[in-house]
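In the design runs reported in the main text, the only information available to the sequence generator was the tokenized backbone. The following block is the verbatim input for one such run; it is reproduced so that readers can re-run the procedure and compare outputs position by position.
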């Protein structure tokens, strides 16, 4: 620890760190597991952060925190699937913060965007969500996923193409995608992150 760290003390530094990043980590968990597990995932993530506080990156800690939260979420998904409590990659219902606007603009479009995301593989889906929902840059999302930036860019390119196909050709379960303008918010989010 540097001289600045010892003056304030590890507890005080961690308290500021926690206050600055807790909401981001909780939203990350909320969008993936819903409100019942979001606080637990965030608490577990910061428990790991406390144990590894002296070794974690201080310049950009959010990708590191998302990586820890991702591992916790994945473990919970596995447990829920083992118990037969979760059959889709997204929990049912609307898990936004109270009063937050719907980012897709309409429930029907949100549903088709989530269905398209759900058809991606787990790593590609997480990459898209890190970029579109968490607002990370490709290099930071690559850090969360544990791959190189070049690999993340290739995955992103391929995932974008698949999502566009999925949006144009929904699964044959009889559900119809609503008619939308050519440039939908879901497609715009995919195009905005290079």
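Verbatim output:
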């Amino acid at each position: 620890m540097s001289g600045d760290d010892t003056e304030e003390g590890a507890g005080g530094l961690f308290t500021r760190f926690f206050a600055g990043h807790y909401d981001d980590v909780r939203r990350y968990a909320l969008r993936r597991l819903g409100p019942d597990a979001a606080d637990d995932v965030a608490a577990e993530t910061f428990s790991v952060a406390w144990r590894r506080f002296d070794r974690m990156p201080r310049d950009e800690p959010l990708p590191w925190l998302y990586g820890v939260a991702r591992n916790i979420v994945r473990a919970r998904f596995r447990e829920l699937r083992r118990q037969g409590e979760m059959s889709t990659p997204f929990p049912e219902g609307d898990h936004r913060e109270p009063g937050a606007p719907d980012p897709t603009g309409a429930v029907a479009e949100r549903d088709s965007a989530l269905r398209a995301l759900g058809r991606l593989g787990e790593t590609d889906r997480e990459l898209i969500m890190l970029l579109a929902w968490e607002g990370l840059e490709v290099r930071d999302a690559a850090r969360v996923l544990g791959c190189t930036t070049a690999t993340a860019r290739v995955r992103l390119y391929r995932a974008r193409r698949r999502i566009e196909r999925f949006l144009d050709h929904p699964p044959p379960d009889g559900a119809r995608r609503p008619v939308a303008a050519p440039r939908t918010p879901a497609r715009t989010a995919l195009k905005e992150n290079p």
